[in-house]
Amino acid sequence: MEAFAFNAIEQGLLIGAGGLLVIQAIYYLALYNRINLHNRAIRQNKLRFSNELPPISIIICAHNETENLQRSLPAMLAQDYPQFELIVINDGEKNENENYLSQLESQHKNLYHSFVPNSSRYISHKKLAITLGIRASHYDWLVLTEANCLPQSNQWLRLLARNFTSRTEVVLGYSGYERGKGWFQKQVAFDNLFTSMRYLGFALAGNPYMGIGRNLAYRKSLFFNQKGFSAHLNLRRGDDDLFINQVATSENTRVETDPASVVRMLPLKRKRDWKEEKIGYTSTTPLYKGMQRWLNGWETTTRLLFYVAWIATVSIGVLHAHWLAAGIGFLLFLVRLTLQIIIINQTAKNLKEKRSYGLILPVFDFLQPLQSLNWKLRYHFRDKREFLRK
After folding, report:
1. Residue 109 in contact with residue 224, Cβ under 8 Å?
2. Could you say which DSSP state residue 352 is in?
3. What residues contact 141, with CB distance under 8 A and at least 6 apart?
4. Does the structure show a pLDDT above 80 at 253?
């Protein structure tokens, strides 16, 4: 019976690991599984959608992105939707963007473009570009996306619009990356998927706290009622996450997760671009209202503590040849890993991600919070004036 005798350290570690596993399971079942539950409810006709198709204004801010526009605009203009306009605001030097947009305008009467004056100062150019696009729009429903985003079907607008009920003012969609090769691309894809499972999961749970401007819709009236981006006008970022954090509620926000509503970006070519994007979002996170930020932090903390607890349990069990303790510690790890694989891969499948996660998942799972800490430290030691519009 010595195999069933645990010393105080082993008891403490097993109780701690078990408790942390329960916390992690709650997060996965109650939050990260929300997209799967949402799609299942749609398939079972348990959700109500609007049958109306109100006119839509698509707003794009482009910064010297002719190649991206040549890739994305034809797919946007080919949407199967009765009435919409596409407004492109050119933020940057007047180059081939202007020539391409002028040429395309002559072929499509619902395409318009303008530009951000180079003389604009003390305000984020992107926020100004979006504001100019919104002011130029003719319709109340706005769809915000970016030049490098390619809709995955011609039903993109229809699927967003089915959420335009009388009570809805914000619709959050999913944006992913096209499949790339190499470790870096896998890391970026996992981080994007997991981040989306978080903020879309909270929104589906009735607690929206942010959005991403690659696949986002809201009412023009909401934008002006909230005085646009005036609360954070001097910040470089915040045109998507901070604005949605400010205006989204459980009553006025819906989520669209049909794979045909997804937009995808080309794989990132430079790690530096991803780093600057993540640090940029880190700069706005402290301004979020609500408890979601802290709940996300608690999940990250318990995740790391769980790794410490089960590894310590296995290590001590092996050192003392107490194989039952080591086995239980490893079993706890396998239970969580199995839960992760099922939920994360099912979510990836629902969103038509061309990547699945198996035994490599614990590596991404452990590295992600360390990367988040890295972004926070980099932001902490950077000159804060870098995140303000000069």
Report:
1. no
2. T
3. 54, 55, 56, 57, 161, 164, 217, 219, 220
4. yes
